[in-house]
Amino acid sequence: MSGKVARAAQRVGTPVGDFSCTSDTTPMNPPESHTPQQPPACPPPQAGEGKELAFPQGRKGEEPPAGDGDTQKFGVYIHWPFCLSKCPYCDFNSHVRHAAIDEARFARAFAAEIATTAARVPGRSVSTIFFGGGTPSLMQPATVGAILDAVARHWTVASDAEVTLEANPTSVEATRFRGYRAAGVNRVSLGVQALDDGALRALGRTHTAQEALAAVAIARQVFERYSFDLIYARPGQTSAAWAAELKRAIGEAAEHLSLYQLTIEQDTPFHTLYQAGKLVVPDDDTARALYDITQEITAAAGLPAYEVSNHARAGAECRHNLVYWRGQEYAGIGPGAHGRLDIVGERRATATEKRPEAWLMRVESLGHGVTTDEALTREERADEFLLMGLRLTEGIAPARFAELAGRPLQERRVTILREEGAVELTPDGRLRVTRAGFPVLDAVVADLAA
Ligand SMILES: C[S@@+](CC[C@H](N)C(=O)[O-])C[C@H]1O[C@@H](n2cnc3c(N)ncnc32)[C@H](O)[C@@H]1O
Ligand code: SF4
Predict the structure, then answer these.
(1) Which atom of ligand 1 is closest in space to residue 263's alpha carbon?
(2) pLDDT for the residue numbered 172
(3) Lowest CB count within 10 Å: 44, 73, 189, 262, which one?
(4) CA 329, 312, 287, 86 torsion: positive or negative?
(5) pLDDT digits (tens, 9 = 90+) for 421-430
(6) Identical fold, 19-41+53-325 and 378-450
């Protein structure tokens, strides 16, 4: 698999970090899927850094190519790169600033980058918009509204578009929920992380469990749809404690939950502590038991996994993240955001400058913050399709892989993986990873892509 594609697949939710989340390849720690903020491993500045890119542009009326799903979707990812403090486990593109952020100036830059991107891929109908971070719930509702207005000025926004905003569950942020609703947000994703105050302190979070539950209650009143995130496989966490916490969380959830195994990311304070032996995470057997319990409890409660780390009632999946996992088209707007744009028959992988102020200045002088803009080769595109699509329990259409790669999947490898019980074919001919295969998903994908 090409390094370019492997990097891009790291994290989701996010296109800051494109997706999905983890570069960890240990069997007990399946890849996660946060947001497309550009993932942890943001591409380094390219050789052309500082020069204006000669963008290939799409023609008006040009049809976007078909994706793997029912109809072609187009998502817009917006990255807000600021947080009040940096959590010691987090390697998202998030920054702490002690001076006030000039939101009006950032809003103008977001609008400019949206205009430039829309000129490259005109005529799209936007099916989903996702504000990821960082902490988008630090934005004033007026800033969110201005960005949504810019999206609607340059593309058509579908009348049933899903518009999600990631929020930290503090009482201050919950007071903005009605403002976001009025601005056009119709779904929130809350970073609850744990329902135990000791665990929240250990994760460096500034909220308590009670405060998080109060924010969930406000989200329930204000939005038609909400989800929240929990991190498990935390230091010292037992199966019994996680089972109890998860059941309590399900009691508070409506239709969707994101459940991430703690990943020790390079260059984070947790990594330093881990290396020094001062942070001990559950061993592989315990992590596997925690993963199995997670699958059993959520399935029994009607919230089965539809992706490695995401659980929903049927029909309540995060439609924005499905755009990434199904290999459809999306624009990445804001510092460190990644995009996949279909232009004159090519799939182009884009990434913007990660540093917020450098991105701002770049947009103010060039109209965009793009530092990477490359056409994916057939092989890269097909690898990415496998890497993303096999995260979903619905799996992939082998015919679509063949169309992208220009060759079918290697039958011998599929047969071996089927015999090992890692993958299966559905009655309608899709290839999907089994429950036993998910903990070793990275290895399965590497085998099929090789
Ligand atoms: C962009 S982050 C969070 C949004 C928001 N700022 C917050 O913290 O609530 C998206 C999610 O990724 C998950 N996450 C981040 N780093 C992680 C890690 N190292 N291991 C597991 N999950 C992680 C957290 O659950 C977090 O809510
Ligand atoms: S608040 Fe969210 S994005 Fe910010 S550092 Fe913590 S986990 Fe990362």
Answers:
(1) 20
(2) 86
(3) 44
(4) positive
(5) 999 999 999 9
(6) no
> Is pLDDT above 70 for 55?
no
Residues touching ligand 2 (Cβ under 6 Å) are 83, 86-87, 90, 92, 94, 133-135, 168, 191
The residue nearest atom 6 of ligand 2, judged by CA position, is 87
Which atom number of ligand 1 is nearest to the Cα of residue 192? 9
> Best of 37, 173, 229, 267 to mutate for ligand 1, by most ligand atoms within 8 A of CB?
229
pLDDT tens digits for 211-241?
A: 999 999 999 999 999 999 999 999 999 999 9
Query: What distance in Å separates the CA atoms of residue 275 and residue 292, rounded to the nearest whole number?
Result: 27
Q: Which CATH superfamily is domain 19-41+53-325 in?
A: tm_1862 like domain (3.80.30.20)
Q: Which CATH class is domain 378-450?
A: mainly alpha
Q: What is the pLDDT of residue 160?
A: 97
Which residues contact residue 387 at a Cβ distance below 8 angstroms, ignoring those fewer than 6 apart?
A: 1, 5, 6, 9, 445, 449
Mutate which of 83, 137, 166, 354 for ligand 2 pocket (most atoms within 8 A of beta carbon): 83
- Closest C-alpha residue for ligand 2 atom 8: 90
Distance from Cα 84 to the centre of ligand 2, integer Å: 8
Domain ranges of the chain: 19-41+53-325, 378-450
